Amino acid sequence: MTETSFPTPVAPSDALLDVRHLKKYFPIRGGVLSRVVTNVKAVDDVSFSIRRGEVVGLVGESGSGKTTVGRTILRLGEPTSGVIDFDGADISKLSKPAMRRYRKRMQIVFQDPYASLNPREKIRTVLGHALAVHNIGTSADREDRIVAMLEQVGLSGDYLDRFPHEFSGGQRQRIGIARALAVEPDFIVADEPVSALDVSIQAQVVNLLEDLKDKFSLTMLFIAHDLAVVEHISDRVIVMYLGRIMEIAPTRTLYHNPNHPYTKALLSAVPNPDITARKDRIILKGDIPSPINPPSGCVFRTRCPMAIADCAKVVPVPVEVSPGHFSACIRTAPQPAYGQLAAQDMP
Amino acid sequence: MTDAFASSSTARTNEPPLLEVEDLQTSFIVGEGQDVRAVDGVSFVVKGGETLAIVGESGSGKSVTSLSIMRLLPKKIGRISRGTIRLRGKDLVSLPEGEMRAIRGNDIGMIFQEPMTSLNPVHTIGTQIAEVVMQHEKLGKKAAHQRAIEMLELVGIPEPVRRASQYPHEMSGGMRQRAMIAMALSCEPSVLIADEPTTALDVTIQAQILDLMRNLQAKMGMAIVFITHDLGVVAEMADRVVVMYAGQVVETGTVAEIFSKPLMPYTSGLMQSIPRMGEFEEKTRLQTIPGYVPLLTKLPGGCRFRTRCAFAEERCAAAEPPLEVLDSGRSVRCVRWRELDLKTKATA
């Protein structure tokens, strides 16, 4: 393991998921021959791990690569390179049939419950498919399982013969959660699961996810742009920007004592519903650069209030600034000496 | 009841308020001749130079209220079925379309959540702004284009001359929203209606746009009607707040009043259900408002919130509570508000 990855703060045996040097590039083709002219580096050398039973939040703005990370670790997209170690086995190169038995153990809840349910299928069919695909239960007892699952997510078994459009957004998201949990997975990627919901409904779904997580001892990667929701649900938080990890820390540390200038700016940008606690805001200049042509060195440097000339030269190494708290910034997380860095960087 | 929290300050002077919405009712035809009142008896006043936030969830009627003010309701299916909207005393509801067109842009500007839907994809940004300017002011093409560039500069778009010659798709979401603001403010309207202007933006870009709106307001003095579902944005931007639920105003007050002592259970329920950043305590559960926002076709009788309200009693079902105006100028639609001591935060 080289030092360009965020060292895992957990013993390998504790980790259910261990991602090392994950890269996902999307080729851009051009010209008459449709040659690959460049790559969008959606995820560029990302390493992290998730302990059994842990909820890890993954935050970032558009183009940060957070959704691509979630999909790639479930093999819903092929990784360009890197290792995805799930429960002790590298699944990054498994064939489709070999991947199948892992699919049952790794599920996803999508943001948009409107788009992820087939409008022509009754709830009975939607959930029945999930069980049939993974050969769970006999066809006779599947209905009982489905009803039990609906009740787990707070819906009545009477809803079996309804279609998705007969439900509200919050109820549809509950169905999406029921479908993911029906196959009794160990690991869930929740990709912006409450972003499309009304404020008063969000809290219901967040509480439900927390209850189910405890009940079924789930491990979860919770992807969201809403920093307050992520703080509420996560044990640790990963902050991404333009395909790279800026900072990883235990939740409390990240929110109370952020190290990376990007994390600081991101946290300070969130509008605060407490009128007595107005604070000084760091307003970042400019736009998020295009991931087609990211800045050299530190990808955040073009908007960073602390950037210096050296930031353009090297991709910062993640450094442990306090136990389990890693930050990739040459200004705020003192870097190892140059010679040492070069040596460590060697494969 | 229709004067809700409105006229107390304007009664002293004879000058009519800048914008006054009174007992507004907007109906939509859904299916076979069935009418749904998306906005049902809404009243409020916007004073010059202030920011009034209208807060609500989906189906609350907050966006329909703003479209009604602009008279931009979808033709044939949507109409203002009752009430008045007065701009400096002049009724807009009965205004012929031609005159209303002159009001839009000139007196009331509007920006939307997704600028891509309101910018024309086949014209450059500069041309579009210049067109708006020429519609409202006697300016030549060249002068109007010059104004467009000045406006782009004013809203903080770098290289405004080059940007003026770009098409909307060549800009980022944040830049497009800036361009949209430039267009809406190009004729210096006295009211800017902003309907979820930052909802589609990333949080660091949202901070830029909110900052820009505050600065422009300080510079140009327009009133802002800020429509949003985000209580954080309300706390940050608003002077006064109107809370809407199921087509009605359920509570109004200054931002300090609303956030320190909500009077309506729905308002306090919303405040308790949002997770607050930096207050991470060992896994306190979020408070929830049970159930779902009712469909406008299936409203419960009596108080529209009672089916989800923790404080509902029998009398809440008996009749629809009026919007009661208090001496302070606040107003609240709840028969029990005097007895309740509502919280703003979930307690562990």
Polypeptide structure, described:
The complex is a heterodimer of chains A (347) and B (348). Chain A is of the alpha/beta class. Chain A is built from 10 helices and 12 strands. In chain A, helix 4 packs across helix 5 and helix 5 runs parallel beside helix 6. Chain A is globular. Chain A starts with 14 loop residues before the first strand and ends with a helix. Chain B is α/β, with parallel strands linked by helices. Classes of the chains: A alpha/beta (347), B alpha/beta (348). The interface between A and B is large, with 44 and 47 residues.
Q: In brief, what are we looking at here?
A:
Chain A has 10 helices and 12 strands. Chain A has 347 residues and is of the alpha/beta class.
The arrangement of helices and strands of chain B along the chain is EEEHEEHEHHHHHEHEHEEHHHEE
Oligomeric state of the chains? heterodimer
In spatial order, strands of the major sheet of chain A run: 6-7-8-3-9-10-12-11
> What is the radius of gyration of chain A?
21 Å
Strand order of the largest sheet of chain B: 6-7-8-3-9-10-12-11
**Which protein chains are joined by the largest interface, and how many residues does each one contribute?**
A-B, 44 and 47 residues
Q: What layout of secondary structure does this protein have?
A:
The complex is a heterodimer of chains A (347) and B (348).
Chain A (H helix, E strand, L loop, with lengths): L14 E16 L4 E17 L3 E5 L6 H8 L7 E6 L2 E2 L5 H8 L2 E4 L13 H11 L5 H14 L16 H14 L4 E5 L7 H17 L3 E6 L2 H7 L2 E6 L2 E7 H6 L4 H9 L49 E4 L2 E3 L10 H8 L2
Parallel strand pairs in A: 3-8, 3-9, 6-7, 7-8
Antiparallel strand pairs in A: 1-2, 1-4, 4-5, 9-10, 10-12, 11-12
Helix pairs in contact in A: 3-4, 3-5, 4-5, 5-6
Chain B lengths: L18 E12 L3 E13 L4 E5 L6 H9 L7 E10 L2 E2 L5 H10 L1 E4 L3 H4 L6 H12 L4 H14 L5 H5 L8 H13 L5 E5 L7 H18 L2 E6 L2 H7 L2 E6 L2 E7 H6 L4 H9 L40 H5 L5 E2 L5 E2 L16
Parallel strand pairs in B: 3-8, 3-9, 6-7, 7-8
Antiparallel strand pairs in B: 1-2, 1-4, 4-5, 9-10, 10-12, 11-12
Helix pairs in contact in B: 4-5, 5-7, 7-8
